[in-house]
C-alpha cells in the first residue's frame, strides 16, 4: 500500500501496523523515501538513522535531545561529531514504548532563536513556502512533521520553540507544564524554562506522545508526578471558559490576517459551547520579553560554559588551557549564543545582578501571579501563537531584537511554567496561522479537550497546499 | 603578645573543607572515595556531559546538618544551592554547585578547651558543595612551572564537601591548632569523614592579620593556603604574625596576599593579575530545588550526636587537670578512663597510667576489660615495675586477668635485699672504688645490677637507699 | 542603565571565555546595547515586596538515597574526548 506520509497521523499508522496492513519496515521506508525526496529542499534533518527493525512508530527527535549512539549537535559546530553515550530520559521512555528514532532534526543553535536560521548547519525551510522560515528554534521538527517526513517529533520549548514553529508550519505542538517532562539528557539552554514536548499533526497524537514522555524522573529533581493523560474525544466545548487577554491581541506587530484567523476560531469555539471573554494580563505581555531575555541568557551563560574543548566536542588548541577554551568557544559558537552568553554574564555580574537578573526573577513572580489570577476565572487563555505568519528567510536575521519579538505571545506563559498548545486555525496569505491555548499548571487535559474539539470543527488541512497531490 | 614599642594582637580566621565519606558523590551516584584507576568513577553528571543534571545525596545533606548541630549552628529553614561560576580544568561544568547566602548551617560556635580556659570560636557558617576533579600538571622537567600539559582525573569530582568558616575569634597559633584538632576529632567521631590531611579529606586555609592589642579594628589579612599539617600550620601562623608585626613596626603596611605553601596541590585558578578579581556571578541553581530540613529530621540527628570531645574535655577537666583531660580525650582514652574509675581506681592514677604507659602499648582501648585494669592500677605501687609493664602489655587480651600479676610482690625488705646488694658490690670493686672516689652517677649502675639480680622484683627506692648506705660505709 | 561600553564587552567576553576579534567587539557592542535597552524595561515596574521566582514549581527536598549506581566504563567516558593520555583527559597546561 502506498502511504501518504504527508497526511498519515501516528494514530492511523499504529492502526495500520496493528491490523498488519503495513509492516514496520514498509512504514519506515515510506518516511525514508519522503526524506530522500523532500529533505534536500526542506533541510529538516541533520542526521537520518538506519531502520533498527521492529514495528514501532518512527519518531523524529530535535537535535538538542541526547540520543545514545546517534550524533547530537544542538545545531552547533561546537558539538560537531559528538555522539552521546546515554539516552535522554524522554528518548528512553519513547524507546520503551517501542518507538524508533527516525533521525535528528535541525534547530537554532542551542535552541536559541525563532527561525532556525541560527543553526550552524544551515536553516530549515517551511514546507508551505520554502523561501520562508519554519519558525524556531524547533524548525527542523516542524518542517519534518508538516513536510510528511515524520509522523510526529519531539521538540523542546524554552520561550516558544515548539509552539511558534507549529504555528508557522500549521500543525500541533504542546509546550508542557514545567516539571512534567524530564530534561535529563537534553542539552540545557535555560534550566528553569526548558521543556521537551510533542510535535504532531493532531491533538490526539500530541496527547499520546505526551503521555509516553512525561512523568517524574529520578534523574531530574525538577520533575513531579503527572496527572493521567486523557485522550480527547469530545467535539463540543460546553462549559469551557476561554479568556482572551487583550494585551496579547494588542501586542506590537500582530498582522491583521493573524488576528482575523484567531478571531474566527474563537467564534467557532463559542458555537461549540465555550464562553469567550476578554481579560487582562496587565504586565505579562509588556514585560515578558524583557524578563525572558534576562533570565534565559543568564542561565544559558552558565549552562554553555561546559563547552570548552576539554572533554568532548570541538577543540581549538592553545598554548595554555585558557587560550584553548577561548579559541574553542569563539570558533564553535555562532553569534546568537555569543550574544546570549554575554548578556547573561552581564546580567549576573557583580554590580549588575540586582538590577538585571534579580529584578527579572521578580518580574517573573508578577507574571506568574497575573496568570494564576486569571485561571481562577478561566479554564484556558487564548491568543495568536505568533504575531506574524512565516517570514522570509533572512528578513529579520540582522535585527536581534526584532527576532526576539516573535516570541512576545509565547513567552509570558513560559515564564509562569504553564502549558501551552498550538493548533492551526486558518490561513493568512496562504500561510498557516496558529491559535495558542494556555492552561493552568497541570492543565494539559483541558488543553487537549479544547484543542481537539476545535481542531475537528476547524478541519484545517495540515498538508501544505503546494504539496497536496 | 608584646613586641617592640606597642603590643599586638593576632586575629585569625579559618576556612576548613571536609570531604564526607558517603557511599556516593554529592550530585550523582558514582562511588565516592579511593577506588580504581583514574576516571573509573565517572558518569554523565560528574563529567559534565551535555544534558546531565545533579541529584543531591540525601545522606550528605543529613550529615552536614549533623555537623552543624555539633557546632551549635542554627539549621536553616530554607537552604538553597547556588552556582559558583569560574573556568578551570578541574571544574567541568565551569561552575561549582555550592551554597551562597542561604547555607544549611550558620551562626554556631565551637568551644576550644585550652590550658588558659575555654576559647569560644564562632562558626560563621557550614555549607555543602561539591569537590573539584584532580589536576595533574605535567612538565618535562617535573617542575610545576613550564608545565606542558594538564591531565585531569574526575574520580574526585563531585565528592561531597562541607565548608566551615569561622569568625576571626582566634588570637594565637596554638589555639588555631587546637581548634583544628578538635574540629577534626569531632568530625571523625561523628563518622562523617576520615579527615586526613595527607589524603586531602580535610583541608584548611588560614587568614591572619594583626592589630594593636585592645583595639577592635580589622586590618589587611594574609591568606595561608595548602598547609598539610597542624603543627606546620601553627609555625606558619606564628611566622606570619611576627612578620606582620615587624612590617607595622617598621612603618610599613601589610599587603593583601595569598601564600601558597604547597603549590603542587594548587586547587583554584591563580589570579592572572590583581585587576582580575574573581567574579563568581553566584545565582540560585535552577536544576535544584530548595532544602527545607524537616524538624523531625533535625531532632533525630541531634539525638544521634552524643557527648562531643570538647564537652568531654571540659567535663573531665573538673576532676583532672586540663592537660590530662586533653590527653585522654584527644588520645581516645577517656571512655576507658571513665570505666576504670567507675570500677574503683583512683581518677588521677588511672589518668596517669592511661596517658603515659597504656598509650604506648598501642592496644585498642575498646579491647580492655576496665575492671581488671582498675585492679592493676590500684595495685601498681605494690608490684614490681616489670610485672606491671607485662600486665599492661596483655591488658587487651581476651579473658585478661590481673590476678596472676598482682601476686608478684615487690621485695622491699632490706634484710632480704642486703645480701644481694653486698654480692653486687663485691662483684664490682672498680665501680665501688670509683663511686667512693666521687662518681655519684655510678649509683644507677649498682641499682640496675641489683634489679637484674632480683628479676625486677626489688623495690627500687629501697635498693637505692641500701646501696648508697653500703657504698658509703 | 542601558547601553554597554566597549570595556564592558571585553570584560564579559573575558569572564565568559570568548575571544572576540576587533570587528566582533564593535558589532556586539552595538547589538548588546540594543538588547540591554530592551531588557532594561524591567526596571520600570514597581516590585516592592515581590519575591523572586527561581522555580515555577513550589517543590522542595528532592534528593536521592546514598546508594551507588554503575559508573561509565573508560571507553564511554572517553568516547568523545579530544585528547586522552592513558586514562586521563589531557588539556594544555592550566
Which architecture name of chain A does CATH use? Alpha-Beta Complex
Going by helix content, strand content and strand pairing, the class of chain A is: alpha/beta
Mean pLDDT, all residues of chain A = 96
> Strand order of the main beta sheet of chain B, please?
2-5-6-9-1-10-11-12
Summed up, the domain count of chain A is 1
Order of helices and strands of chain B: EHEEEEEEEEHEEHEEHHHHHHHHHHHH
The number of helical segments of chain A is 15
In this structure, how is the largest beta sheet of chain B organized? 8 strands, mixed
Q: What is the strand tally of chain B? A: 13
CATH class of chain A: Alpha Beta
Helix content of chain B: 25-40%
Taking the alpha carbons of the first and last residues of chain A, their distance comes to 16 Å
Radius of gyration of chain B: 29 Å
The biggest beta sheet of chain A reads:
11 strands, mixed
Low-confidence stretches of chain B: none
- Low-pLDDT parts of chain A are none
- Tell me which protein chains meet in the greatest interface and how many residues each side has: A-C, 71 and 53 residues
CATH topology grouping of chain A? Amidase signature (AS) enzymes
> Could you say which overall geometry of chain B the principal axes of the C-alpha atoms support?
elongated
**Adjacency order of strands in the biggest sheet of chain A:** 1-3-2-4-6-5-10-11-9-7-8
Question: How would you explain this protein's 3D organization?
Answer:
The complex is a heterotrimer of chains A (469), B (473) and C (94). Chain A is α/β, with parallel strands linked by helices and 469 residues long. Chain A has a single domain, classed as Amidase signature (AS) enzymes (Alpha-Beta Complex), CATH 3.90.1300. Chain A has 15 helices and eleven strands. In chain A, helix 9 packs across helix 11 (335-348), helix 9 crosses helix 12 (354-374) and helix 11 (335-348) crosses helix 12 (354-374). The mean pLDDT of chain A is 96. The model of chain B has no long low-confidence stretch (mean pLDDT 90). An eight-stranded mixed beta sheet of chain B has the order 2-5-6-9-1-10-11-12. A three-stranded antiparallel beta sheet of chain B has the order 4-3-13, with no helix packed on it. Chain B has a two-stranded antiparallel sheet with strand order 7-8. Helix content of chain C is 34%, strand content 6%. A two-stranded antiparallel ribbon of chain C has the order 1-2. Chain C is flat. Chains in contact: A-B, A-C, B-C. Chains A and C meet through helix 9, helix 10, helix 11, helix 12 and helix 13 of A and helix 1 and helix 2 of C.
Amino acid at each position: 500500500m502506498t502511504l501518504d506520509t504527508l497526511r498519515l497521523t501516528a494514530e492511523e499508522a499504529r492502526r495500520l501496523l496493528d491490523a498488519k496492513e503495513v509492516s514496520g519496515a514498509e512504514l519506515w521506508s515510506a518516511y525514508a523515501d519522503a526524506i530522500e525526496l523532500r529533505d534536500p529542499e526542506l533541510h529538516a534533518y541533520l542526521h537520518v538513522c538506519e531502520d533498527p527493525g521492529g514495528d514501532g512508530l518512527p519518531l523524529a527527535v530535535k537535535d538538542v535531545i541526547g540520543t545514545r549512539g546517534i550524533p547530537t549537535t544542538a545545531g552547533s559546530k561546537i558539538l560537531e561529531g559528538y555522539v552521546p553515550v546515554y539516552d535522554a530520559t524522554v528518548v528512553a521512555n519513547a524507546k520503551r514504548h517501542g518507538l524508533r528514532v527516525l533521525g535528528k532534526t535541525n534547530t537554532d543553535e542551542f535552541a536559541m532563536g525563532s527561525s532556525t536560521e541560527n543553526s550552524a548547519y544551515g536553516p530549515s525551510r517551511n514546507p508551505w513556502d520554502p523561501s520562508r522560515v519554519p519558525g524556531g528554534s524547533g524548525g527542523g521538527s516542524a518542517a519534518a512533521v508538516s513536510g510528511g517526513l515524520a509522523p510526529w517529533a519531539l521538540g523542546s520549548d524554552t520561550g516558544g520553540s515548539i509552539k511558534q514553529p507549529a504555528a508557522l508550519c500549521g500543525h500541533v505542538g504542546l509546550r508542557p507544564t514545567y516539571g512534567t517532562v524530564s530534561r535529563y539528557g537534553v542539552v540545557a539552554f535555560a534550566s528553569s524554562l526548558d521543556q521537551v514536548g510533542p510535535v504532531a499533526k493532531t491533538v490526539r497524537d500530541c496527547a499520546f506522545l505526551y503521555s509516553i514522555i512525561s512523568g517524574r524522573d529520578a534523574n531530574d529533581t525538577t520533575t513531579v508526578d503527572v496527572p493521567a493523560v486523557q485522550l480527547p474525544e469530545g467535539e463540543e466545548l460546553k462549559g469551557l471558559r476561554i479568556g482572551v487577554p487583550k494585551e496579547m491581541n494588542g501586542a506590537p506587530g500582530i498582522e491583521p490576517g493573524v488576528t482575523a484567523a484567531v478571531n474566527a476560531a474563537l467564534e467557532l469555539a463559542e458555537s461549540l459551547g465555550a464562553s469567550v471573554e476578554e481579560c487582562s494580563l496587565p504586565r505579562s505581555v509588556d514585560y515578558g520579553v524583557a524578563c525572558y531575555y534576562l533570565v534565559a541568557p543568564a542561565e544559558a551563560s552558565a549552562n554553555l560554559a561546559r563547552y570548552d574543548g576539554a572533554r568532548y566536542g570541538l577543540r581549538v588548541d592553545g598554548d595554555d588551557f585558557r587560550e584553548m577554551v577561548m579559541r574553542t568557544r569563539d570558533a564553535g559558537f555562532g553569534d546568537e549564543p555569543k550574544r546570549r552568553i554575554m548578556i547573561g554574564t552581564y546580567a549576573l555580574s557583580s554590580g549588575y545582578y540586582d538590577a538585571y537578573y534579580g529584578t527579572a526573577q521578580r518580574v517573573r513572580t508578577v507574571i506568574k501571579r497575573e496568570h494564576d489570577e486569571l485561571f481562577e476565572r478561566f479554564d484556558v487563555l487564548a491568543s495568536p501563537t505568533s504575531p506574524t505568519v512565516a517570514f522570509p528567510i533572512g528578513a529579520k536575521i540582522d535585527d536581534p531584537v526584532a527576532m526576539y519579538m516573535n516570541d512576545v505571545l509565547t513567552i509570558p506563559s513560559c515564564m509562569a511554567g504553564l502549558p501551552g498548545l498550538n493548533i492551526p486555525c486558518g490561513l493568512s496569505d496562504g500561510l498557516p496561522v496558529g491559535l495558542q491555548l494556555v492552561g493552568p499548571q497541570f492543565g494539559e487535559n483541558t488543553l487537549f479537550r479544547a484543542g481537539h474539539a476545535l481542531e475537528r470543527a476547524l478541519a484545517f488541512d495540515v498538508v501544505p497546499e503546494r504539496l497536496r497531490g | 603578645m608584646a613586641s617592640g614599642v606597642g603590643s599586638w594582637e593576632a586575629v585569625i580566621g579559618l576556612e576548613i573543607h571536609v570531604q564526607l565519606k558517603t557511599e556516593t558523590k554529592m550530585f550523582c551516584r558514582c562511588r565516592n572515595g579511593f577506588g580504581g584507576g583514574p576516571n573509573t568513577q565517572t558518569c554523565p553528571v560528574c563529567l559534565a556531559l551535555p544534558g546531565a543534571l545533579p541529584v543531591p545525596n540525601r545522606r550528605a545533606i543529613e550529615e552536614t546538618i549533623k555537623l552543624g548541630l555539633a557546632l551549635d549552628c542554627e539549621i536553616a529553614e530554607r537552604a538553597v544551592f547556588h552556582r559558583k561560576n569560574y573556568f578551570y580544568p578541574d571544574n567541568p561544568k565551569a561552575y561549582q554547585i555550592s551554597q551562597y547566602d542561604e547555607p544549611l548551617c550558620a551562626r554556631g560556635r565551637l568551644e576550644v578547651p585550652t590550658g588558659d580556659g575555654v576559647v569560644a570560636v564562632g562558626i560563621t557558617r557550614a555549607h555543602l558543595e561539591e569537590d573539584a576533579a584532580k589536576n595533574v600538571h605535567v612538565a618535562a622537567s617535573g617542575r610545576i612551572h613550564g608545565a606542558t600539559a594538564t591531565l585531569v582525573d574526575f574520580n574526585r569530582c563531585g565528592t561531597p564537601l562541607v565548608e566551615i568558616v569561622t569568625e576571626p575569634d582566634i588570637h594565637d597559633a596554638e589555639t588555631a591548632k587546637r581548634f583544628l584538632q578538635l574540629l577534626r576529632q569531632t568530625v571523625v567521631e561523628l563518622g562523617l569523614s576520615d579527615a586526613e590531611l595527607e589524603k586531602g579529606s580535610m583541608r584548611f586555609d588560614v587568614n591572619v592579620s594583626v592589630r594593636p592589642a585592645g583595639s577592635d579594628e580589622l586590618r589587611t589579612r594574609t591568606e595561608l593556603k595548602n598547609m598539610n599539617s597542624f603543627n606546620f600550620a601553627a609555625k606558619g601562623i606564628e611566622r606570619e604574625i611576627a612578620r606582620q608585626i615587624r612590617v607595622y613596626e617598621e612603618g610599613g603596611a601589610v599587603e593583601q596576599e595569598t601564600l601558597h605553601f604547597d603549590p603542587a596541590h594548587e586547587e583554584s585558578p591563580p589570579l592572572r593579575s590583581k585587576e582580575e578579581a574573581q567574579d563568581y556571578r553566584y545565582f540560585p541553581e535552577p536544576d535544584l530545588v530548595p532544602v527545607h530540613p524537616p524538624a523531625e529530621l533535625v531532632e533525630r540527628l541531634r539525638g544521634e550526636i552524643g557527648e562531643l570531645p570538647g564537652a568531654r574535655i571540659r567535663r573531665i577537666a573538673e576532676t583532672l587537670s586540663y592537660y590530662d583531660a586533653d590527653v585522654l580525650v584527644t588520645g581516645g582514652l577517656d571512655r576507658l578512663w571513665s570505666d576504670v574509675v567507675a570500677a574503683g581506681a583512683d581518677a588521677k592514677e588511672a589518668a596517669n597510667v592511661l596517658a603515659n604507659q597504656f598509650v604506648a602499648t598501642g592496644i585498642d582501648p575498646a579491647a580492655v576489660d576496665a575492671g581488671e585494669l582498675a585492679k592493676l592500677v590500684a595495685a601498681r605501687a605494690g608490684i614490681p615495675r616489670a610485672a606491671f609493664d607485662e600486665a599492661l602489655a596483655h591488658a587487651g587480651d581476651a579473658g585478661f586477668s590481673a590476678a596472676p600479676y598482682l601476686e608478684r610482690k615487690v621485695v622491699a625488705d632490706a634484710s632480704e635485699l642486703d645480701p644481694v646488694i653486698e654480692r653486687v658490690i663485691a662483684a664490682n670493686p672498680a665501680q665501688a672504688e670509683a663511686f667512693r672516689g666521687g662518681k655519684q652517677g655510678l649509683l644507677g649502675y649498682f641499682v640496675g645490677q641489683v634489679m637484674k639480680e632480683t628479676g625486677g622484683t626489688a623495690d627500687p627506692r629501697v635498693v637505692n637507699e641500701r646501696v648508697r648506705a653500703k657504698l658509703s660505709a | 542603565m542601558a547601553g554597554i561600553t566597549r570595556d564592558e564587552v571585553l570584560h564579559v567576553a573575558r569572564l565568559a571565555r570568548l575571544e572576540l576579534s576587533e570587528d566582533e567587539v564593535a558589532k556586539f557592542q552595538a547589538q548588546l546595547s540594543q538588547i540591554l535597552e530592551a531588557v532594561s524595561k524591567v526596571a520600570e515596574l514597581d516590585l516592592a515586596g515581590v519575591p523572586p521566582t527561581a522555580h515555577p514549581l513550589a517543590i522542595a527536598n528532592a534528593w536521592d538515597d546514598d546508594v551507588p549506581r554503575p559508573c561509565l566504563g573508560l571507553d564511554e567516558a572517553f568516547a568523545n574526548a579530544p585528547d586522552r593520555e592513558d586514562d586521563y583527559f589531557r588539556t594544555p597546561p592550566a
